[in-house]
Amino acid sequence: MDNFKAFGNSLSSIGSQITPFASRTFQYTKEQLGQAEDKTQLPPDYIDLEKRVDALKQVHQKMLAVTSQYSHEPYDYPANIKESFSDLGRTVSEKVQLLSAASTPAEAQAALTAPPTAKPQPKTFSHAIARASLASSQLLHQQHTGAGEDPLATALEKYALASERLGEARLAQDAQIQSRYLAGWNTTLNTNLMFATRARKNVEKARLTLDSVKSRAKGNTWKIGAGNPREDHHTTDELSPEAQEEIEKAEDEFVTQTEEAVGVMKNVLDTPEPLRNLAELVAAQLEYHKKAAEILSELAPVIEGLQVEQEANYRKSRESAS
């Protein structure tokens, strides 16, 4: 038993000479192995703040995992379609203008495959619908031999133009969400919450340092064997002035770091920025859906008019045939 006590005392001597980092690591290891006594407890209010900060961090991570898709243009682009470079060369509006000037099928085909004038066109679901609708319209026009225009071809062309406008409105929505919501929430997650995490780590470091100093001062750096506590430990009254001063210094640092962390966490929790950013997200979505409703409200009666006219002509042709 005396040999164990001597070994424990030698560890105590070593503990007083090691670096603060090693001392904290030593204390942490003791705690993990259940060899630490009188672990300094954090205030209940502090622990509540930690839980709230952790919850806020999880909220940001969950929401950003989904809404970050607004940063990726083709998030709703169909995976099963293949568009060529010429398909993405010009906007639907530009192609319609070129087609309106075409007088032969060859010119019409050239208009559809005209070389690009700028960067490739966006890969969104609405833009894909627009390009498919315009190409379909031209297929019908090229094969139409009757009088006037093919009503379905005309409707598809108008649908193509409207769909392109829908795609542009979606891109405008995404840009607003990126700048007014995603940027703010990423800043909160990667900056504000990181500051809180750093402050909490400083508190943990200060606590480990304090408990390490206390343990070393009481001759309890490591617990080897089951010695007599009366023989192994010193009471607070028996601490030397130097040891008492070291403990008080560590306590002061612990209190300082705790107060600083409380301030940082309260600032993160109380800032109105996340809710303001969320309001901007909703506003951008609302603006987009209003614009979409406006575009489709303009298109619907036009398509309906073409459909009514075609149905009337169809009934007339049936009646005359009978």
Could you please describe the fold and organization of this structure?
The structure is a single chain. The chain is an all-alpha fold. It is 74% helix and 0% strand. The chain has ten helices and no strands. Helix 6 runs antiparallel to helix 7 and helix 7 packs antiparallel against helix 10. The protein is rod-shaped and about 120 Å long. The model is unreliable at 11-17 and 221-236 (pLDDT under 50).
Q: Uncertain runs with pLDDT below 50, 5 residues or more?
A: 11-17, 221-236
What is the mean predicted local confidence, pLDDT?
A: 81
Total number of β-strand segments?
Answer: 0
Structural class: mainly alpha
Task: Assign an overall shape.
Answer: rod-shaped
Mind telling me the C-alpha Rg? 37 Å
User: For the terminal residues, how far apart are their CA atoms?
Assistant: 118 Å
The number of distinct helices, counting runs of at least 4 residues, comes to 10
Q: How much of the sequence is in beta strands?
A: under 5%
The profile of the biggest β sheet is: none
Percent helix range = over 70%
What series of H and E elements makes up the topology?
Answer: HHHHHHHHHH
Describe how the helices and strands are arranged.
Blueprint lengths: L1 H14 L4 H13 L11 H24 L24 H10 L3 H8 L12 H19 L7 H67 L11 H4 L8 H30 L2 H49 L1
